[in-house]
Automatic annotation (TrEMBL):
Locations listed in the record: Periplasm
Keyword vocabulary terms for this entry: Copper, Electron transport, Metal-binding, Periplasm, Signal, Transport
Domain Blue (type 1) copper positions: 36-117
Signal peptide: 1-25
Organism from which the protein derives: Dentiradicibacter hellwigii
Protein name: Plastocyanin/azurin family copper-binding protein
Principal location listed in the UniProt entry: periplasm
Any Pfam family hit: Copper-bind
Taxonomic lineage: Bacteria, Pseudomonadati, Pseudomonadota, Betaproteobacteria, Rhodocyclales
UniProt xrefs under InterPro entries: Amicyanin/Pseudoazurin, BlueCu_1, Copper_blue_Plastocyanin, Cupredoxin
Entry's transmembrane regions: none
């Protein structure tokens, strides 16, 4: 009977901690491609909405890509990420808001995507940095239009 008291106490502690634990996070996959119906060097999907604490795996379908955050297009407090050529990455997103993401070597050719974390931000809130190359600025606007047409806000 002496064993049951410590085990019962431990179980009570574990059960009492459950409501304060975060919900199970999801992991999503985003592919970096050379081409699809939207044009050259797209991310697929080009727009993704996730919950805070979810993770995104950036998977290189072909060589020559390097995903990275665009620091001027991230929520305050968010941690930037950057990879090397031919290196995928899994990133946990905890800060709510909109993120601009690029492929470093193909940024000037329009290789960008938008990630929305949580419900607070609207696609209309995305501020496209003036440092973004013109082709990528256009792609961001096209992504917003397609996402809105599909029901995103």
């Amino acid at each position: 009977m002496k064993l049951w008291k410590p085990v019962s106490l431990l179980m009570a502690l574990v059960i009492s901690a459950l409501p304060s634990m975060p919900a199970w996070a999801e992991t999503y996959e985003v592919k970096l491609l050379n081409r699809n119906e939207t044009g050259p060097y797209p991310f697929e999907p080009e727009f993704l909405k996730i919950k805070p604490g979810d993770k995104v795996t950036f998977k290189l379908v072909t060589t020559g890509h390097a995903p990275a955050s665009i620091e001027a297009m991230m929520p305050a407090g968010a941690k930037p990420f950057r990879t090397k050529i031919n290196q995928g990455i899994t990133v946990e997103f905890t800060e709510k808001g909109l993120y601009g993401i690029k492929c470093i070597p193909h940024f000037s050719m329009g290789s960008v995507m938008i990630l929305q974390v949580g419900d607070e931000a609207s696609l209309d809130d995305l501020k496209i940095s003036s440092d973004v190359p013109p082709i990528s600025q256009k792609r961001f606007k096209d992504i917003i239009a397609r996402a809105k047409a599909a029901g995103a806000k």
